[in-house]
Structure to design on (446 residues):
DNA sequence: CGTGCCAGGTGCCAT
DNA sequence: ATGGCACTTGGCACG
């Protein structure tokens, strides 16, 4: 059960209480969650202004910041990990300033009403594993080249890239070089251009016949 | 101040209390925030497993889902808006299942400890404005072509040419066609290739001198 | 470090 | 719906 040391919850705190809790959470590198009425300025690679409204603010222990509106998967404003924080009261407003160096970016959040605030330390050692559903396709091609074409021999593959994309090099039944590009998603014209550039460059290099094969769940009409 | 109707906070609820609160929040389309020990399965475009650990779960009123670990800007698991939910108790475990159609994706979160739960309705009508996007750069150039070059006349923007779209299209002081490609970030060789394809295509089409201009904060060494 | 490239990318807007 | 493309893209691997 939640130890008092582990999670602190304030419902409808005063701005002074909230300011104190924010300072404490940030200095102790605890995770901070706040809900209230706020407005946000961002300046850095771009510049943005978010007018007042009710949102969720999350500051994580690694110094990343998220501002979430009531809708949408993405945060409306954010700051990547590594920020340095300043916070305090400015008149009737609680401000939190998150500064990132390299590139220099500043995010400022101003609260005039705080509905609730939570500060906590979470322990998460759980392993995360992601399996691309097309990864089996890649393995299948490596193990069973005949899935693509009879008589195909695999020579090499670009194993450095992440699952979902791999270049496979092989030789077909007639001794021609074969370049296979696997796309996990619908392949657009950019994929075709990229493959054709590979093929051209290999053709120039080897002076042999080279074929390119594009393997994808779907190909845009410009095939 | 937070109306009881507006925000409900449960500290260290029992699983039964939490299950009730979750059902209520989901059916009334309120925003749900939970903190506790959980594990997560995802299956859809890919497949993932997240082993047990302490995390933050947020379900928004539009049916989007976020699972956040204690670190990192990005959610470890998520679901875009529009999900349909099922939840309940399965033995000692509180489960929440978020199903998305088109594409079919299923996210399942299982809690065995809930440290904290909040359900709320937030009102957010605040306008969001972002500046210094590529769009704004384009407008600035459209309004003030001399920013690029004296004597430049703009003819069109987002003009469709063979390989794709040209950002800005004009004629310079000496009557030569000018193609301007705008990149908000460091322009790599891909941008150069793209621009050169545009230039080639237009040169072939018009049989006139064509210049390409790349507008970007920085250009990779392969210029 | 910069450069390149994938991502369960997401989102926006065009046809 | 499909396609094309920008994004404060973020993230990682590699030279």
């Amino acid at each position: 059960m939640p130890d008092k040391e582990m999670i602190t919850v304030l419902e409808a705190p005063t701005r002074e209480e909230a300011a104190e809790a924010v300072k404490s959470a940030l200095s102790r590198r605890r995770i901070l969650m706040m809900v209230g009425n706020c407005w946000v300025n961002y300046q850095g690679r771009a510049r943005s202004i978010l007018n007042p409204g009710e949102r969720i603010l999350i500051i994580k222990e690694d110094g990343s910041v998220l501002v979430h509106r009531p809708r949408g998967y993405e945060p409306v404003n954010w700051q990547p990990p590594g920020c340095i924080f300043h916070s305090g009261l400015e008149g009737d407003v609680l401000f939190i300033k998150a500064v990132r160096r390299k590139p220099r970016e500043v995010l400022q959040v101003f609260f005039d009403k705080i509905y609730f605030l939570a500060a906590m330390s979470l322990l998460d050692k759980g392993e995360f594993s992601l399996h691309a559903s097309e990864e089996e396709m890649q393995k299948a091609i490596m193990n069973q080249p005949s899935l693509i074409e009879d008589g195909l021999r695999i020579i090499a593959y670009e194993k450095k890239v992440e699952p979902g994309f791999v270049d496979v090099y092989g030789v077909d039944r007639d001794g021609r070089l074969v370049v296979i590009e696997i796309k996990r998603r619908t392949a657009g014209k950019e994929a075709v251009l990229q493959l054709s550039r590979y093929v051209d460059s290999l053709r120039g290099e080897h002076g042999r016949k080279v074929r390119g094969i594009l393997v994808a769940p779907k190909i845009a009409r410009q095939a």
The CA atoms of residues 201 and 207 of chain A lie 10 Å apart. Residues 42-48, 77-80, 103, 105, 160-162, 186, 188-190, 220-222 of chain A lie near DNA strand D (CB under 10 Å from a C1'). Chain A touches chain B through 58 residues (CB under 8 Å). Residues 189-206 of chain A form the longest helix (18 residues).
